[in-house]
Amino acid sequence: MNSLAFSVCSLFYIFLIVIVYYSKKRIDYLENKIYSILIVVTLVGVLLDNISFIINYLGVSTSSIIYFLLTKSVLIYFMSWMYLFVMYVFVISKKDKTFNACKRLIKILTVIFLASVLCVIALPMYFNTEKNAIFPYGPAVNGVYIISFIGIFAMIIVMLCNIRSVNIKKFFPLFIFMFLGIIATFIQYMFPSMILLTSVEAFVTFLMYFTLENPDMKMIEELNIARNQADKANRAKTEFLSNMSHEIRTPLNAITGLSQVLSEEEGLPSKAKEDVKDIIMASDSLLEIVNGILDISKIEAGKLEIVNTTYHPYQILNELVVLTKARLGNEKPIEFRTHFSEDIPDTLYGDYARVKQVILNILTNAVKYTEKGSIDFYVNSVIHNDVCRLIIAVEDTGIGIKKDKIDKLFDKFTRFDEERNITIEGTGLGLAITKKLVELMHGGLVVQSVYGKGSKFTVSIDQRIVTQKAQEKKEIVSNEIKIYPGKKVLIVDDNKLNLKVAGRLLVPYKVDITSVMSGQECLDKVASEYYDLILLDDMMPVMSGKQTFAKLKENPDFKTPVVVLTANAVSGMKEDYLALGFDDYLAKPINKKELDEVLDKYLTKEEK
Ligand code: ADP
User: Would you say 431 and 409 are in contact if contact means Cβ atoms under 8 Å apart?
Assistant: First the structure.
């Protein structure tokens, strides 16, 4: 009666575990497959156990065919359970747990199993009815014992050989099986009516679900592995991009820097001046392409962030007008008109660089895709409380866009009318980036176009107002160069050509330049002399710019502004450098205007 209680309990929880296991999504592992058969086999075994009790209770004779068949079935069940359990332990011990890798093992075990089942069926079996209990004995039963012991022995050997390489947790069911198996055998020996082995097997199968076969845990593990791999790939991509940016920008820095210096050289033949201008234009578009690829990769990795600061919208607008006029040149008969509303606030809070990038993209496209006529640049503002909605529109009389193409306009690397635009440079990235940037700033972008007539791109972006008063529309951009005689600037770069470029670019400012090629030399110079400004490259061998900067800062009296000068211009880099304590950031190729601003900010500080 006591063992009946165990058997009924086992039936109950094995039935539950079958329902739970099969109702969950499972991973297609070999060990899971074995386990899924094992629980069904266990359920059958526990059912047979319960039927045996009923038959015993009903007093069916041991010589009847039903009793005989039932007992043989129970023996076959024992063999099947042991076969699956051995296979399970073997599979979890293997390094490669795929079906193909375990094929031979499965074949061998299956052949042994089938042969033993045939033996159990064929060999004779008798019943002992002593001590108030009925239990089978004879060659068939001994066969089951022998095969089971061989199985247990093999599992112990496999476990001992692999205990270091396999998570010990995986062998818990085997430990528990051995431990409870010994107790059950002992109890059965003492009280033959207590048949507990099926309940032990059911219990072990039940435990396996938690220790080895929890599909949820497996799923989470799989997800974690996949996420780690994706993170790793993403990091590799970002690293590759910043390296690529660095590698391309370094030579570009020399090309643009030196051609800029050359174009300002007096006495240069006009033909040479023209050529230098073309070199500058070509390197500018190359830089634009590099930046475009970097931006789109950043956006796709979800790493492009909007960095808000206070800025003067009129400053952006003036810069954009100057840039657009320069791009238009005098070759095309195009009239460029600006229409800026009077009430644009003086200071706004937003991402200055990204707002400028968005407008510049649509202005540049208008210039590129218009042959004659006009380009109108409208900027209006709608003010509500402390928010200003900037409504920027660029209308051209260019080639226009076919209606069916408008939807595809923002797909990356998409360009239309390739035959017509063959001479127009572009990557098809500009509008894809523009749209993403506008979305990141929670703005809107509308396109209206008539093919052959012209297009109008309208962007609206909300920016917080810092100072309401409309600013005087004074021309901020001037070509006049400020000079700083007597000011000492230290340039640190491991690349000779870069030193030359920076040195040449600084000549017109009349500063006193010192160049060194390593972080250590920089530290030595700073220790012996005072400098008004340090331009420090980051990616240097032995001691990087960041390390040099940290060493400089160790001295509490060190107050010289340090501007990091780097070709690593992936978006977000600037913020990282500023967070480290650098005073400012200059990307290579060095932009003359940005250099102007930096020098003005740090070399005229005292006078301000
Ligand atoms: P790119 O100009 O580098 O090719 P964009 O993403 O900026 O890439 O533009 C995608 C395509 O949209 C362009 O190749 C061009 O065919 C079309 N397009 C963009 N702006 C205009 C415009 N103002 N007028 C006509 N076509 C345009």
Answer: yes
Distance from the alpha carbon of residue 415 to the mean position of ligand 1, in angstroms: 6
Express each pLDDT in 359-397 by its tens digit: 999 999 999 999 999 999 999 999 988 999 999 999 999
Tell me the pairing of strands 584-587 and 562-566: parallel
Q: In angstroms, what is the span from residue 240 Cα to ligand 1's centroid?
A: 28
Q: What would the mean pLDDT of 124-131 be, rounded to a whole number?
A: 79
Tell me the per-residue pLDDT of 128-137, one tens digit each, with 9 for 90 and over.
776 666 778 8
Which residue of 287, 401, 408, 438 sits with most ligand 1 atoms within 8 Å of its CB, as the best mutation to test the pocket?
401
What average pLDDT does range 313-329 have in this prediction? Answer: 88
pTM of the model: 0.54
383 phi/psi in degrees, rounded to 5? -105, 130
Helical segments of 24-136, H only: 30-58, 65-93, 99-122
Q: For residue 335, what are the CA distances in angstroms to 1, 196, 281, 318?
A: 103, 98, 21, 17
Locate tokens 């094995």: which residue? 14
Query: Running DSSP on this structure, what letter comes out for residue 482?
Result: P
Residue 476 pLDDT: 46
Q: pLDDT per residue over 57-89, tens digit each?
A: 887 777 788 888 998 999 999 999 999 999 999
74: CB partners within 8 A, 6+ apart: 45, 48, 49, 52, 198
Given a contact cutoff of 8 angstroms between Cβ atoms, the answer to whether 95 and 165 are in contact is yes
Rounded distance from Cα 426 to ligand 1 centre (Å) = 8
pLDDT at 139 over 70: yes
Mutate to test the pocket of ligand 1, among 295, 365, 418, 429 (most ligand atoms within 8 A of CB): 365
- Nearest CA, atom 7, ligand 1: 430
Q: Is 215 in the pocket of ligand 1 (CB under 6 A)?
A: no
Residue holding tokens 């109950």?
A: 12
Q: Residue 411: pLDDT band by 50, 70, 90 thresholds?
A: confident
Asked if residues 452 and 417 have their Cβ atoms less than 8 Å apart, the reply is no
CB-CB contact of 433 with 295 (8 Å):
yes
What's the 411 CA to ligand 1 centre distance in angstroms?
Answer: 11
For residue 31, give the nearest of 80, 83, 97 by alpha carbon: 97
Report DSSP state, residue 130.
G
**How buried is 510 (Cβ within 10 angstroms: 0-12 exposed, 13-18 middle, 19+ buried)?**
middle
For 538-589, write each residue's pLDDT tens digit.
988 899 999 999 999 998 888 899 999 887 766 667 788 888 999 999 888 8
Q: Closest Cα to residue 261, out of 251, 249, 271, 253? A: 253
Q: Ligand 1 in contact with 346 (CB < 6 A)? A: no
Instruction: Determine if ligand 1 sits within 6 Å of the CB of residue 428.
Output: yes
Burial class (CB in 10 A: 0-12, 13-18, 19+), 229: exposed
Whether 328 contacts 281, CB under 8 Å: no
What tokens does 88 get? Answer: 């399970």
Within a 13 Å sphere around the CA of 191, how many CA atoms are in the beta-carbon half?
A: 10
Bridge partners of 454, per DSSP, are: 450
